[in-house]
Amino acid sequence: EGSDLTYSQQYYKLLYDPKPGEDEETYFNRLTARDDGEDATAYKQKIMILQNLYPESSLWTNDKYKQIIETNSIDENVQQPGETKEDFYKRVYAQKPGESNDDYKK
């Protein structure tokens, strides 16, 4: 079991360590970005992994990136505080870009 953890840490470090020539802003933007198709649950899991890998990183105390993480962690299928029911339904059930009228009606 311990070796599995080591391999996991090595994998995530390869994935999330700074790339050669990557400045801090570019690096933090890459880490905090929510990937296409990544839902809020998967995003929060990625952030948890990053916090475990890099607990001393200034990323966690930087207000700009804390706000990005908070925004990207919102579950888009849940009514947000201050959002009316009407606005919630318009947002969640809106026709998506590239979605045909036939697919939207389903």
From TrEMBL:
Location of the region described as Disordered in the Swiss-Prot/TrEMBL record: 76-106
Superkingdom of origin organism: Eukaryota
Organism, scientific name: Homalodisca liturata
Name of this protein: Uncharacterized protein
